[in-house]
């Protein structure tokens, strides 16, 4: 699996699809490192390590890494911009090894946005089994509606074999989404960066790629220091 993933990374590299290539290189190396740990044959270990060392020559991507080897990319979404549905932001990081997702956002209020995010996870190609949501309670009368809505999403996800773990905190402030393959996305406005549609039957009501956005910044990180692997 590791070799196949790296082979795909090379194909993407040749096609100048560097962002997707980098994701595949990272995951392929992770898989091969697991093989190295499980292999008792020292000769094989040496060959695997040599090959991994070649793939870890990230100097080929000087614009993608900071000095400590950590990946960082920033996307600026302008006011009223379109074409920034959830698939646009997240899909390239949701590869097949993703099975667990963490969403931390103090203001999960527009539950249809969170539902749309969950639908994207269910569609794959990732194999998500658990979604952890940490948020805060809505104020006043909105609290009961918020809880019942989240419980309905929880039940619906269960029908697809996905567990939604819901927790509430009154002290969280940051907004971030993490995948268990090491990728982390921080959005200034969280998942609610879309503007309200003009009407129930207006373009962009269903297709978020056509929905105008609020101005916000998206920061993408990888939490593993590749030069230490």
Structural description of this entry:
α2 runs antiparallel to α3 and α5 runs parallel beside α6 (142-158). Mean pLDDT is 83; it is low at 58-69 and 225-229. The chain is α/β, with parallel strands linked by helices and 229 residues long. The chain has six helices and seven strands; from the N terminus they run αααβαβαβαββββ. The longest helix has 21 residues, at 18-38. It has a seven-stranded mixed β-sheet, with helices on one face. β5 and β6 (183-187) form a beta hairpin. It is globular. The chain folds into two domains: 1-55, Up-down Bundle (Methane Monooxygenase Hydroxylase, Chain G, domain 1); 72-225, Endonuclease, Chain A.
Which terms summarize this structure?
Methane Monooxygenase Hydroxylase, Chain G, domain 1; 6 helices; 17% strand; disordered C terminus; Endonuclease, Chain A; alpha/beta
Overall CATH architecture of the largest domain: 2-Layer Sandwich
Residues in β-strands, percent: 15-25%
- What name is given to the CATH topology of the largest domain? Endonuclease, Chain A
Report on the biggest sheet. Answer: 7 strands, mixed
Rg computed from alpha carbons, rounded to a whole number of angstroms: 20 Å
- Low-pLDDT segments, ≥5 res: 58-69, 225-229
Tell me, what's the shape? globular
Spatial strand arrangement across the major sheet: 1-7-6-5-2-3-4
Number of helices: 6
Count of distinct strands: 7
Span from first to last CA? 19 Å
Helix content estimate: 25-40%
Overall number of domains: 2
User: What structural category arises from helix and sheet content?
Assistant: alpha/beta
CATH class of the largest domain: Alpha Beta
Mean pLDDT: 83
Order of helices and strands: HHHEHEHEHEEEE
State the CATH superfamily name of the largest domain.
Answer: MITD, C-terminal phospholipase D-like domain
Organism: Crotophaga sulcirostris (Groove-billed ani)
InterPro entries: MIT_dom, MIT_dom_sf, MIT_domain_contain_protein1, MITD1_C, MITD1_C_sf, MITD1_N
Pfam family, one: MIT_C
Protein name: MITD1 protein
């Amino acid at each position: 699996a590791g070799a196949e993933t790296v082979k795909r990374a090379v194909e993407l590299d040749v096609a100048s699809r560097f962002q997707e290539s980098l994701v595949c290189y990272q995951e392929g190396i992770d898989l091969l490192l697991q093989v190295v740990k499980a292999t008792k044959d020292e000769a094989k270990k040496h060959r695997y390590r040599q090959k991994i060392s070649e793939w870890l020559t990230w100097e080929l991507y000087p614009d993608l890494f900071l000095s400590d080897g950590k990946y960082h990319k920033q996307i600026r979404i302008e006011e009223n911009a379109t074409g920034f549905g959830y698939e646009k932001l997240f899909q390239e990081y949701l590869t097949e090894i993703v099975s667990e997702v963490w969403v931390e956002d103090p203001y999960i209020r527009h539950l249809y946005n969170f539902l749309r995010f969950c639908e994207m996870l269910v569609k794959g190609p990732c194999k998500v089994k658990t979604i952890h949501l940490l948020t805060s309670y809505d104020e006043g009368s909105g609290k009961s509606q918020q809880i019942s809505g989240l419980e309905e999403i929880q039940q619906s996800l269960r029908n697809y074999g996905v567990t939604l773990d819901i927790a509430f905190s009154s002290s969280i402030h940051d907004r971030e989404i993490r995948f268990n393959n090491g990728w982390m996305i921080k959005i200034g406005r969280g998942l609610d960066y879309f503007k309200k549609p003009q009407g129930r039957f207006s373009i962009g009501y269903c297709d978020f790629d056509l929905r105008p956005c609020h101005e916000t910044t998206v920061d993408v990180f990888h939490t593993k220091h590749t030069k230490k692997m």
